[in-house]
Specification:
about 1050 residues, alpha+beta, 6-stranded mixed sheet
Length: about 1050
């Protein structure tokens, strides 16, 4: 995949707009000259410098056909970097001079839209974030060769002519080509060729009327692409990840996609099926009169049609039987016409091919596009059913006189009075004429031949004359009940001779005279039942999509194909759509949420807005934001009511699997609270494995171990939608806290919303959050789970203590909250960011290897006494540098940490107090105070070596308790043992903070494993074991669970 480094279209489009503005001003100044003339004059002034032109078509077949016409068959072909897209070179008189032309092509869209890397993986973020995530255009791998061809060819050219299809998608593809070429050559002149068919007249006319590309039309496609990406990706990820776990046996490996067009399309199928299921047949009754004349039998139909009341019909029937003589009350004769078909547009072609030829819409469009690029028919994607007055139809009809099958009829059309006379419709897209043949051929085979023949016959039928006939209607009266019959005599078949897809049959009836009487052969009372509607055919479905504005004529076939490939629907033996179990469940589930997402309203509104964008009547950005917000609201509600989806699918896919609470939490990807200060990825609230508490964790775990552990006094914590207006980088969401009763001073509320970005002084005190000092505007740093607490970068060794920091200024609050008196806290020395420093600077805070590069910090994973211990080694592996992170720098280490930088003087207005919090454990619980001359703050074993901290894993009363022991191999240990929580100073009331949990993801940093800072005498024998005391008040006789101060 190649990310396209392209200039924004904003650079190109204002230029086009300025050109249009100058054009209008010049036209106003010289009203006698047409806008087209003025534009051509302006362009001609800069065209004199053009010697070589690059032309780009949408497909290779189109490029080949256009090149053959422009060169008169003398184009020279050579290979480009893509083996599927050739380059055709020739000379042509363009801009009033002879220029060298290079004609090449793309293969549809050159660029694709995708989320930026952090959002591309399915589990990378909450699907809700995809509504606001950054997107970018990039060049897919299979298009890179085409892109490189364009870049190479355009360097030698002074002008670019876009020959892509003249519809929305073609205009957008044209701007992709423009962006790629402008990135290479900024002063390139750009023109647009407008054409509807690849014929000499059309191509010549396009060359003479080159214009500027239409940015508005392309913008509409940009909006549609971005919305489809955001809506489709968010809903698809949500329902696929959820339903695969809820119904693993049925949906284990199935992609359950959602699209704002495909879902309403599925909704039409489900709605018809449910209408059939809900249909209750009713019995009806009617009277029928038969009259036999010689060998013919005439049936007279009751003018009442039918009655649903048996007795009422029976009474009328008996009255007729009492006086059965029939009297002719009326004989009416009038001319009757069967209208010829309207000119062919895309939707009608898809429907008729499906009904008459049994070729599905997808295959029909594929064949029609191929016939167009080969020059046999006009552009097949059109909404127009009116032939323009400027289009001369006689030459097109004359081409078909060569056919043995319909050549005679084509000649009759030419000979009829007035020549070809098309029946006109009411629709026009102002871009392309109706679909019609442009060249005669008799060599096509299979479905290609059938589609071509259908288009030719339809064209000849619509330019010929209506079928003519004579209809006779006879009314009779029996006992004051009226009955009627009709006969038809065809006078001239006309278009029916060439169009076998319509039928019109004659019906012969005897001659009746007004006032005459006759005895009916039979009078019968018959019954019947109402029948349900039939399942939808493809033609029915396309009609509904067109009626409700779902998709466009160019995309109907794609949406139908998608719901078939996803197995949301199937086809019956007679090619009617039947919804599958998954399709039924999805539609019922979403409808039960209250948002009828299977209805066409949402998408129809979007399609209407896209049309306004393409016409320049609505702003691209405004439409995009409006519909993103609309679908985002629906998505949030859908996630909240996700169980309704499970309930709707259960009858079709079996009982929903019960998901444990832990897995349920994994399925519900939390929303981000803030960006990680270490790796800039999202930090989210997660539930602790033990208990009901939560912690704030980086989604980059285990690569990034940044975390914030909240103390047990926090009963509930959740993300609030409000964003802190002060802290950076934005957004940092506020958190909603609920504290245990008695854990806060009386003047503080137990529930409140606060910010952990650093600006909320109260939370800094209550949670003992340890922030980076002098760390820019972020307000605070975050510690790593595998590193230290409060250090922000996971520094494996705690720095020297700092004096208390003065209180940072806070913005005035409209509703101030009470807070504790300020509590000084110690701030660690931050490590420089990766890749900065470390080159011998004495003030550098990085560990540097013998190569002079920043060393790599790793953790011992192998079982043994050093498991969980951190160490430094050469990043490149080119030297033998090694250093334990919890040991003082050895003499052989060429670089060491520089001294900590001074902090601002403490606030003199507030006398400093000892901190309520203590430093967290590093490297799984080992503590070491920086300094080369001693072991201040360390726990030393009897060997005069730094003891290691371990956690009791065995079941029992001490499980989870941490202790110090000798770090040597078992057979060399000195027998030293000490509980980590004994002889420690009482911790503060609140033990949270930006901290770490050791390599096991637990342990130090949540209030356990803290000990008094002080010198340890290596010659002193191990302390006698003292009775266990409470972890809160440190009094013997009870534990922290039963502590009265809890």
């Amino acid at each position: 995949m190649l990310i396209a480094n392209l200039p924004g279209r904003s650079l190109l489009r204002p230029g086009l707009q300025r050109l249009g503005l100058q054009w209008r001003r010049l036209c106003a100044a010289q009203g006698g000259r047409s806008p087209d003339t003025r534009l051509r004059d302006d362009m001609n002034r800069s065209r004199a410098q053009i010697k070589r032109v690059l032309c780009v078509a949408e497909k290779n077949d189109a490029a080949k056909g256009i090149a053959e016409i422009m060169s008169g068959g003398t184009a020279r072909r050579r290979e480009g970097m893509s083996k599927f897209n050739k380059i055709y070179e020739y000379e042509y008189n363009l801009f009033g001079q002879n220029v060298s032309v290079s004609m090449t092509s793309v293969s549809g869209h050159l660029l694709a839209l995708e989320f930026k890397a952090p959002f591309q993986k399915w589990h990378s973020c909450n699907p809700q974030l995809l509504f606001d995530a950054e997107v970018e255009k990039y060049c897919p791998d299979n298009m890179i060769h085409i892109k490189r061809t364009l870049e190479k060819e355009v360097r030698q050219c002074q002008a670019l002519v876009i020959w892509t299809d003249c519809d929305r998608e073609g205009e957008n593809i044209g701007f992709e080509v423009i962006d790629v070429c402008k990135a290479v050559k900024h002063n390139l002149q750009v023109f647009r060729a407008k054409f509807s068919e690849i014929t000499p007249n059309s191509i010549r006319r396009a060359c003479e009327t080159l214009t500027a590309p239409d940015a508005n039309v392309s913008d509409a496609v940009d909006v549609r692409q971005e919305l489809d990406l955001r809506i489709g990706a968010s809903f698809t990820r949500f329902q696929t990840l959820r339903l695969q776990k809820i119904f693993p046996e049925s949906l284990a490996n199935q992609l359950i996609s959602y699209g704002s067009c495909q879902f309403p399309t599925l909704g039409f199928v489900v709605e018809r099926f449910k209408a059939i299921q809900a249909f209750i047949p009713e019995t009806f009754y009617k009277i029928k009169v038969l009259h036999e004349v010689e060998e013919d039998t005439v049936e007279f139909n009751w003018k009442r049609n039918r009655l649903f009341h048996h007795t009422a019909c029976l009474v009328l029937y008996q009255i007729c039987m009492e006086d059965p003589m029939a009297t002719v009350t009326s004989v009416t004769s009038k001319p009757k016409s069967k209208w010829r078909p309207l000119p062919l547009d895309t939707v009608e072609m898809e429907k008729l091919a499906s009904r008459k030829l049994r070729i599905n819409a997808k295959e029909t469009m594929k064949i029609a596009e191929k016939l167009y690029t080969q020059g046999f028919i006009s552009y097949p994607r059109t909404e127009t059913n009116i032939f323009p007055a400027t289009l001369n139809l006689s030459p097109l009809v004359e081409l078909q006189t060569q056919s043995q099958a319909w050549g005679t009829f084509a000649q009759q059309v030419l000979d009829q009075p007035g020549g070809p006379n098309p029946r006109q419709g009411k629709k026009s897209d102002q871009a392309h004429p109706p679909i019609h043949p442009t060249k005669f051929t008799h060599t096509l085979q299979g479905n290609e031949g059938r589609i071509y023949e259908f288009i030719v016959r339809h064209f000849l039928a619509c330019v010929s004359q209506d079928a003519l006939g004579h209809e006779t209607v006879v009314d009779i009266d029996i006992a004051q009940e009226t009955f009627s019959t009709s006969g038809l005599m065809i006078i001239a078949r006309n278009y029916l001779d060439v169009y076998p897809f319509d039928r019109w049959s004659a019906k012969v009836i005897p001659v009746y005279e007004n006032g005459s009487q006759f005895q009916p052969s039979a009078i019968e009372m018959v019954d019947g039942q109402t029948s349900p509607p039939q399942l939808l055919t493809e033609a029915d479905l396309i009609s509904l999509m067109e009626k409700h504005g779902i998709g466009t004529d160019a995309t109907h076939a794609d949406h139908i194909e998608t719901i078939k490939s996803r197995m949301y629907v199937g086809l019956t033996a007679d090619q009617r759509f039947l919804p599958g179990e998954l399709g039924m469940g999805l539609v019922e589930g979403y409808n039960s949420m209250g948002y009828e997402m299977s209805k066409p309203n949402l998408r129809a509104e979007l399609e209407a807005d896209l049309k306004l964008v393409s016409e320049g009547r609505k702003d691209k950005r405004g439409v995009l934001l409006q519909h993103i917000q609309k679908y985002k609201t629906v998505f949030i509600e859908s996630v909240r009511k996700a169980k309704k989806l499970d309930e709707a699918l259960s009858p079709y896919l079996g009982a929903a699997q019960e998901i444990p609470e832990e897995e349920q939490q994994d399925m519900e990807i939390p929303l981000p609270v803030r960006k990680c200060p270490n790796c800039s990825r999202d930090m989210v609230l997660k539930k602790k494995r033990e208990g009901n508490g939560k912690y704030l964790s980086c989604v980059g775990f285990p690569a990034c171990k940044t975390a914030v552990w909240f103390p047990e006094t926090v009963l509930e914590v959740s993300r609030d939608n409000s964003i802190c207006p002060t802290c950076q980088p934005r957004p940092i969401h506020m958190l909603r806290f609920k504290f245990r009763r008695g854990s806060l001073p009386p003047m503080m509320p137990l529930e409140f919303v606060g910010c952990i970005g650093g600006c909320d002084e109260m939370l800094r005190e209550v949670l003992d959050l340890k922030y980076l000092r002098g760390g820019g505007g972020d307000g605070g740093g975050v510690g790593r789970r595998g590193g230290g607490g409060g250090g922000g970068r996971g520094d494996p060794r705690p720095p020297a203590p700092r004096p208390p920091r003065p209180d940072p200024p806070r913005p005035p609050r409209s509703n101030p909250r009470p807070s504790l008196p300020p509590v000084p806290s110690w701030a660690p020395q931050p490590r420089p960011p990766p890749g900065g420093g470390g080159s011998g600077d004495p003030n550098s805070d990085a560990i540097v290897c013998n190569c002079g590069q920043v060393a790599l910090l790793l953790t011992v994973r192998k079982d043994g006494p050093n498991q969980g211990r951190q160490f430094y080694k050469c990043n490149a592996g080119s030297c033998n540098f090694f250093l334990w992170s919890d040991e003082p720098n050895q003499p052989q280490a060429p670089q060491s940490r520089g001294p900590p930088r001074p902090l601002p003087a403490p606030n003199t207005s507030q006398p400093p107090r000892p901190s309520l919090g203590f430093k967290n454990m590093f490297g799984g619980g080992r503590e070491q105070e920086g300094g080369a001359g001693g072991h201040v703050g360390q726990t030393m074993c009897n060997c005069n070596e730094t003891a290691v901290m371990l956690t009791v894993q065995k079941d029992g009363p001490n499980k989870g308790r941490m202790f110090h022991t000798c770090g040597k191999p078992r057979d060399q240990q000195c027998g030293f043992f000490q509980w980590a929580d004994e002889n420690a100073p009482p911790p503060g009331s609140f033990g949270g903070g930006f901290n770490g949990g050791g390599d096991r993801g637990d342990g130090g940093g949540r209030g356990r494993g803290r000990k008094k800072m002080g010198a340890a005498n290596p010659n002193k024998p191990p302390a006698a074991k003292k009775p266990r005391t409470c972890g809160i008040c440190h009094m013997p006789g009870h534990t922290r669970v039963t502590c009265p101060q809890r």
